[in-house]
Amino acid sequence: MDNRIVFTIGYAGFSSTKKFVSVLKDYDINLLIDVRSIPYSKTSPGYNRENLKEILKKERIYYQNFSKEFGAKQEYERYFSKASDISDLLKFPIAKSSRVDSEELLENDYIIDYKKFTKSNSFRDGVEKINKAYADKKKFVCVLMCSEKNPIDCHRTIMISNALKKQFTFRHILSDGTYITNDSMENNLSLWSKKQGIDVHAFDLYNDERYKITIDDCYKARNVFLGWRLPK
User: Fold this and answer.
1) What is the pLDDT of residues 87-125, one digit of tens each?
2) Could you tell me the residue ranges of all domains in the chain?
3) N or C: which end of the chain has fewer CB within 10 A?
4) pTM of the entire predicted model
C-alpha cells in the first residue's frame, strides 16, 4: 500500500460550510475533488459547485470536479450489468426503501457496475490526475467529496477507494471531524453485508475457495444497492 493519504468526506453530516471547511483544514487538505455527477444540491446550496469553489478559494483550497472521471452516474451501456450478475448472493427484488433511486430493483435490471467503470479510460484519467497532484511541488493533500454522511452509503468508498486502496492510504472523515481507516470502513461494510445474509466470517462447509465469501463480495452487494440504473 502506498503511503500517500487520500481522504474522503460527505458534506451531509456537517451543520455548515464553515464547519466543513474547518475540518478540511484540520487535516491540511488543500485539494478537494468533487465526485458528484451533478455538483449541485437543492437542500444545501452552499455546496453548489460555484459557491463551494468560491468558499474554498478563500481558504486556499483548490476545487476540482471529477464527474466524468469518478461520478456515480454514467451514460454508456458498456459500464452496466444485470444486478444479479454483479452479486448473485443477494435476494431479489431489492426493496425500493433500500435503493439509491427509491425504486424496486429486479435481478435483471441493469445498473452501473463499479468494477467495469473503474477499468475505463475515464476512471484512469482521474487516477492519473491524482497521481500528478501528489507529485506536484505544492504537495497537495486530496479529499474526495460527495454528499452521503456514511462512507459505506457512497460510491466514493464502494467504487473509488475500493479500486485504489492498493495505491493510496484512505482515511474516511466522519461528521464529528474524526476519521476511520479503510480497514474500519470495510469492517462496517462486512457488518452491513452480514445483515443481507453475506457473512465473510461464515464457516465454509466445503473447505473450497470457490465458495469462500470475501470482502469483495460485500463491495459487490453494496454496489447493487447504490448503483444507478441505465439511463432510458
Assistant:
1) 999 999 999 999 999 999 999 999 999 999 999 999 999
2) 5-226
3) C
4) 0.94
